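Researcher: Structure prediction, please.
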Amino acid sequence: MASNPSLVMRILSASVAVSNRASNIIRNVLTKGDLGIVEKGKNDLQTEADRSAQRCIVASLHKQFPNVAIFGEEDEMTQRTLSFVNKPQYGTLSSSVPHWTPPKILELYDKNQNLQLDPQETIPKDFIELNFDEEVLKHTCPEYLKDTKDEDVVIWVDPLDGTAEFTQGFLDHVTVLIGISVKGNAVAGVVHQPWFNFEKPGLPLGRCIWGVIGLGAFGFERETPPPNKVIVTTSRSHSDRMVTEAVEACNPDEVVRVGGAGHKVLLLIEGKVHAYVFASKGCKKWDTCAPEAILHAVGGTLTDFHGIRMNYSADVQRKNTGGVLATVADHGKFLGCIPEHIRDAMDKSSPAPELDFKGVVVCGGADLEKAKQNNGQVSAGKSPSPEENAESKSSSDKVPNDFNTKL
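Model: Predicted structure follows.
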């Protein structure tokens, strides 16, 4: 039972627990060998692992937090999943329509606002995870989140980030993403790697990284990025001329092409790359909410190509049409490297609403005009340390002094 009175910490604790179960489900699908691949669109695949993992995550979190908004990548499946938790063995939903009802969910209700259950729909009992991760609950909730209410929260779920790589056997690229936003701001997240250590027999398989802005990030070891070079990561399976041109404009010494937004941000926070550059409108809110929260928890920055920190409210458009730029330092310099015509091709994102962080310093958008004046110079060997980067920012755009990752 969750003893921590904070709603955000209880949701995060439940998310860590259910991410472990979802990862087991994903591994089991691969072991059985029938991936059940469906092509949703160009370069956009869905597998039985995606569908089953989302059933697990959405049904479990909805059962525990019935009045909190949950949005997942597999939208139609999410709508069906809501009926699963009304089965007698799992209890019954409130008779009133939840405030977070996504589009078309209302079609599942009758005139008395009761869910119309499909008797043919079933969900295995072992898909439902109602436990909490006790390690998360041991931590004190940051002051600015203590009074968070159900209606303030939106949970963004990508049940299997890196589906293309999953189908091609690049298992270390795969992650499960559960992001938590409060009043439109990404504040906490879970990134679970089901196959971490899969090439190292004898070591535990899988790992879970989680973090909260104002508390820190946990579950990984951080290293300092190489000081004598610039390493950029970008998409492996969703590349085009514009994506390539934006990366090349940063003058990288090395480009690391991998799958999944979650995996790319993990490379950042572990100190293996300096920046994640993706000049495309294809990334979505469930791809970036959890990674952004964890990156900001360790002092990094994630914005669109206009330097805008994104809005994760329930009514925001799902696509990140402004592109994605993420860094652990020198964000303004990388932003200034992006050619003007590429920036002009990207939309300006809806900015994250103002939130009273009560003294917690949060990385925001970079100073784009200042970056332009400096000609966007990103020089190998000149990237400041996180502490130096914090000192160089204005009082409204500093990284936390306590930068060290907590394990």
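Model: The longest strand covers residues 153-161.
Researcher: Thanks, that helps.
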